[in-house]
Specification:
- This protein is an alpha/beta fold.
- It contains 14 helices and eight strands.
- It is extended and about 90 Å long.
- The N and C termini lie far apart (67 Å).
- The N terminus is likely disordered.
């Protein structure tokens, strides 16, 4: 039987009953058919609801799924603008280079009638930037002196701080491969195709991977130093997301401070990862969601994410749930207004007590309703951690910074699907952490990569 037309196919079109279906049938037969159809429809509804929960849930931000965003309301009086730059925008015209190679283009005949009887009546000046049609890699034969110190008798190889001690590929080529992999998000096969088409450089995907792994090994010292900086940070935004590794579910953890970002990939979502990175005695401020692993940070001040809370309360669709969501949204707006201006320490402590007391009053009232009980328990379990952003200046009420930091890894997950080796996770976490940190610090990534590779490989 055709799979699409099978009786047990959940995607088949539901039957619509008409009066003709009831002719020549007993009451029992009609009821049996109706109950059977209702049962099938219930199963289909449950399947669709289960599928929808993968995307529409309080732990998934709406920005991750644009097709689930509510439609724009035409009743809202919003002034419409044409797409493009503002009226007073200065423009971004590329400046001309002062010392450009001149090229004079002359005409020999008329393009319409092909006549040679033409006069030059003016000139149009333009400037273009071009690359050579064939960029060929340079092969260099390198001879190193093997030296020995007459004082300590140490034998060593001569260095020039631009040529790697091992391998067949130079620093510039390694930087290009890393850019294609981490900035352009190129997969290995397409990276090799690009290198061959653009530079006549034939490399196997395994060779490209070996170049990336060698670069990651060169960054191990800076990655270890980055771990120490994250451990010493006073304020951290932490989040985690799943990533398949060798067919199993692993987790990518992101630790973001004001100037640094650390990615670690582990086969656990438990507090052992927090203990490994931050230690048991971490005393800083952590902005996170309500995942129970963060309760391990007993010495830290926690700020629970209001974005997660508001998404959870918004799921309650009845009247009472909508009222609860409005109350919580008003508290969140109050946080934003309070933090928009400078406040003294006494003002912040007093406001923290007031806001906490108001939140406790809200959950006491709405905990009487069964529909709201899950949200009120969610709030009450972390009641002391919702207004740390009021008590301490500079702390965000949401964990958006961490979610933004982990978004690049989510895109990589969509592209490659999974890591095929444990070594691949170590390579990715090392280079992705260093590149993201340099971006946050507004450093030149190319210069930093050159510096790191030259320092550790040449």
């Amino acid at each position: 039987m055709d799979r699409q037309k099978g009786k047990n196919n959940p995607h088949r079109k539901m039957k619509i009953f008409t009066k003709s279906d009831y002719k020549n049938k007993s009451k029992e037969e009609i009821l049996d058919e109706l109950f059977e159809e209702i049962e099938k429809r219930d199963k289909e509804i449950n399947r669709l609801q289960k599928e929808l929960r993968k995307y529409n849930n309080p732990n998934t931000p709406p920005s991750a799924h644009p097709h689930l965003k509510p439609a724009f309301s035409k009743t809202i009086n919003v002034k419409q603008h044409k797409r493009g730059a503002p009226f007073d925008h200065e423009g971004t015209t590329r400046p001309k280079k002062e010392f450009a190679e001149p090229r004079h283009i002359t005409a020999q005949e008329c393009p319409r009638c092909e006549s040679n009887d033409i006069n030059v009546i003016g000139q149009k000046i333009q400037q273009q930037e071009e690359i050579p049609p064939d960029i060929q890699p340079e092969a260099v034969d390198i001879t190193r002196d093997i030296c020995q110190c007459n004082k300590c008798h140490l034998k060593f190889l001569a260095r020039d701080n631009q040529t790697p001690l091992q391998g067949r590929f130079g620093i510039n080529l390694m930087v290009l491969v890393i850019f294609l992999k981490f900035i352009v998000r190129g997969v290995l096969r397409k990276t090799t195709s690009f290198l061959e088409a653009s530079f006549a450089l034939k490399l196997a995907p395994a060779t490209v991977q070996a170049i990336i792994e060698r670069a990651a090994q060169a960054g191990e010292k800076e990655y270890a130093a980055l771990k120490l900086k994250i451990k010493a940070a006073k304020l951290l935004y932490i989040d985690e997301t799943s990533f398949r590794v060798l067919g199993k579910n692993w987790w990518v953890w992101v630790f973001r401070s004001d100037t640094d970002l650390l990615l670690v990939i582990r086969n656990s979502r438990g507090n052992n990862v927090l203990e490994e990175i931050l230690g048991m005695d971490y005393v800083g401020i952590v902005v996170c969601d309500c995942w129970r692993a963060y309760d391990f940070l007993s010495n830290a001040l926690l700020q629970r994410c209001w974005a997660h809370l508001l998404r959870k309360s918004k799921e309650i669709q009845n009247i009472v749930g909508k009222h609860l969501h409005e109350k919580l949204s008003a508290l969140f707006d109050d946080i934003i207004r309070f933090n928009s201006t400078e406040k003294s320490e006494k003002q912040r402590i007093r406001k923290y007590a007031q806001m906490t007391k108001k939140l406790q009053k809200i959950i006491r009232y709405y905990s009487r309703y069964e529909e709201c009980r899950a949200v009120t328990k969610y709030i009450d379990f972390h009641i002391e951690s919702w207004f740390t952003c009021i008590k301490i200046a500079g702390v965000q009420p949401t964990n958006n910074y961490a979610e933004q930091a982990i978004r690049e890894t989510v895109l990589v997950r969509k592209i490659i699907g999974a890591f095929r080796s444990i070594q691949g996770t170590k390579t990715y976490e090392t280079l992705a952490s260093l590149i993201a940190t340099w971006q946050y610090q507004k450093l030149d990534i190319k210069k930093e990569l050159n510096r790191m590779l030259i320092t550790n490989l040449c």
